[in-house]
Amino acid sequence: MYSRPGSAPSSSSPSGTAARPPRDFSQLRRLVQFARPYLPLLALGIVCTLISSGLNLIFPGLFGKLIDASFLKVGSTDTGPLDRIVIELLGIFALSAVFGAAQSYLLSRMGASVVADLRRAVFSHLLTLSPRFFASHKTGDLTSRLTADVGTVQTVVSTALAQLFSQTVTLVGGVALLFLTSARLSVVTLAVIPVIIITAITIGRRIRKISRQVQDAIAAANASAEEAIVGVRVVQSFTAEDQERGRYGSGIAASFRAALNRAQLQALMAGVMSFLTFGALALVLWYGGRQVMSGAITPGKLVSFLFYALQVGITVASLTGIFNQFQEALGASGRIFELLDEQSDLPEVAAPKRLDSVQGRVSFQNVSFRYGDRGDSATLENLNFEVQPGQLVALVGPSGAGKSTLVSLIPRFYDVSSGTLSIDGQDVRELSLHALRANVGLVPQETLLFSGTIEENILYGRPGASTEEVQAAARAANAHEFIAGFPDGYTTLVGEKGIKLSGGQRQRVAIARAILKNPRILLLDEATSALDSESEALVQDALERLMVGRTSFVIAHRLSTIRNAGRILVLEAGRVIQDGTHEELMASGGLYRDLYEMQFRREQDGVAEIA
């Protein structure tokens, strides 16, 4: 299958290994835990099921009496018994319909509620996982588990669950009434049930395994489609439409083959069940006819028995279908619970320390860091420095020196491999993630805005802020003027990822968002590198206002940022090799002066490039 260069193969489980189908119903037991808040609905639904199914078990006996009242009293003019039986039948049908509808609604509502809670739980848990997890899993696969997999589970928890209760009551009651009507005929009828059960279990296990393969294949295809749609400009610019069609087509073909295999097994099971069920009825008719001819039973009793046998046969067939659905749900719920079982590699202590009145002193003590999935070499090694509150620190170095990784450690997107990273003297691993990140602001190179209005995106920095505070933040970010120029002003929709705004406008909205958050520590990851000169000047001015009074780490892009920094750290191969002011580093020579002079020459030539 075609794959993009450098892309990792998708895995069927969060652990990156092919997950084996579960061997028991532990997933369903876990689903039951989600049903606990809705036990009253479940109990009422079960009561309605018992009543409805019980009423359905009465009418075959009344039908038998109707037959005997009609055919065994030929020539009689007394229609009273016949009339009473018909009225009783109509009453039973009406009550059965009422309780059946109530049962269907109650259990469906419970199922919808359980699945809604399950979706919320999965999504909420995903938000607690670290960037390392998302770096190794495709977004399309995760969204597929939230949608397609949970949808499969919903069918079982609502519709199939209602049918399971109903059909179980019908099966038990029908078998009991079969024996009460005719024990001999019952033995003939029920002889085939063990064969049906063994067949259902044998084929059902294969259906369960293939259902998991279907879900995995659909998730892989969804991931491929999402990547192509998000990067459609790149796809079109490289005229790679045919490659993407082929890649998505291969994924769909794989899911189609798996679905076809599942359909074949389901068809095989349905055919076998149908033959066994109706074959048993044929034997009942043959043997029952002989019983009527010998006078052992009346025609009405034979009719009643046939109805009961038909109910039992239909119930067994329905239960095999429900069994299939539960097998599919086991595969889908397995993928869902894999996500819920995924543990973050950023554990929080049971009693995190408080982070009050943050000053913004950041200290790296013998800090080293390894990603773990990029070989054994350290991305950062033995970092030792301390940044004072309110200080502006520029990070300089060639590509791959570890600048972005260093700033990612401060909000604890990753944990240090060794050493200690502390804020105001407290190890960040002993703080709650929420308290830590609430005091850290990030303005990245590629700004992500959410598909809503400009105001909603700025409010992301501090939900609940007033309109005046939002506009004040926008003014400080040099964004108010262009926002006010839009016909809809602050209610202008920005489109997915802010695509309707220019790069400079997106950055200024992001800066307004950071200003509204008012963090004590600010991280700027080449925030102006992708902008034109005019936009960069506006953004740089906004950034300078934002950095006032805050501890700021700036991955340097322009000479002005470097020169104005109170301190410059020069990184190479994950180590800090120089530390000082611009004047000190220029005087001492080395890598910093080489980078500076290289950029200076380029700017002299009229070309602005990254230092």
From TrEMBL:
SMART domains listed in its UniProt record: AAA
Domain spans labelled ABC transmembrane type-1: 43-328
Subcellular localization: Cell membrane
Domain ABC transporter residues, every copy: 362-598
Residues spanning the membrane: 38-64, 85-106, 156-179, 185-203, 267-287, 307-326
Primary localisation category: membrane
Pfam families: ABC_membrane, ABC_tran
Biased segments, Low complexity type: 1-20
Cited PROSITE patterns: ABC_TM1F, ABC_TRANSPORTER_1, ABC_TRANSPORTER_2
Topology class, membrane: Multi-pass membrane protein
One annotated Gene Ontology cellular component of this protein: plasma membrane
Superkingdom: Bacteria
Keywords carried by this UniProt record: ATP-binding, Cell membrane, Membrane, Nucleotide-binding, Transmembrane, Transmembrane helix, Transport
GO biological process: oligopeptide export from mitochondrion
Secretion signal span: none
Region feature Disordered, mapped onto this chain: 1-22
Descriptive protein name: ABC transporter ATP-binding protein
